[in-house]
Amino acid sequence: MQPSVLPDLAHNDSRTMHWLATAAAVLATVAVAGVLQPGDPTASASAAGTASPRVTAEAPDPAGVVFPLVCGSVGQTVGRQARGDLDGDGKPETVVAVHCAAGSGTPPDGVYVLTRGSGAAPRVVATLVDPALRTTVGELAVGNAVVSATTLGYSSDEVPRCCPDQREETTWRWSGGAFVRSVARPGAGV
């Protein structure tokens, strides 16, 4: 090894006291970060620029709901879910993407809206994507009283079920007592 031409530095060896001081500083930083957490979110501005009422009711839990999806003995699986007040009544709904619990392959999804009356069990009130369309849901979200989903599908029966080649960005908004569907990107390739 070649000796350095630089002068020896006075602080080039660490001592136990240096390590203890460093450990104390790290612990203090972690403790302060644990105490200083952001508060709970409150009402946010909606698309119209007015404050949305804070939703205080609990969103329906999809566990135990019987969905209108025929799966035989394999059962059903909730793949994705999102919650929010879709109709402005102050009670949140739950939107779920459900498919048969197939052991292999890519089973199609159905997208359903769940609600709950006072004291009643959750129930399906709308079907947004029918599983007969043979699409799967890539993304599902609820925001500003709008449901948005990315669905993946197939341009023909010759396309393998593992590899969808169509992508559609779709939204639904509650209007006039029904969900109104609009497509942002119809049939674009994946």
Could you characterize what this model shows?
The protein has 190 residues and is mainly beta. It has a domain at 76-189. It is built from one helix and eight strands. The chain has one helix spanning 16-35, and strands at 76-84, 93-100, 110-115, 123-129, 136-143, 146-153, 166-175, 178-189. Strands 1-2-3-4 form a four-stranded antiparallel β-sheet, with no helix packed on it. The longest helix has 20 residues, at 16-35. The radius of gyration is 26 Å and the shape is extended. Residues 39-53 have low confidence and may be disordered.
Short description:
The protein is mainly beta and 190 residues long. It is built from 1 helix and 8 strands.
Task: Give the secondary structure arrangement, pairings included.
Elements: H1 16-35, E1 76-84, E2 93-100, E3 110-115, E4 123-129, E5 136-143, E6 146-153, E7 166-175, E8 178-189
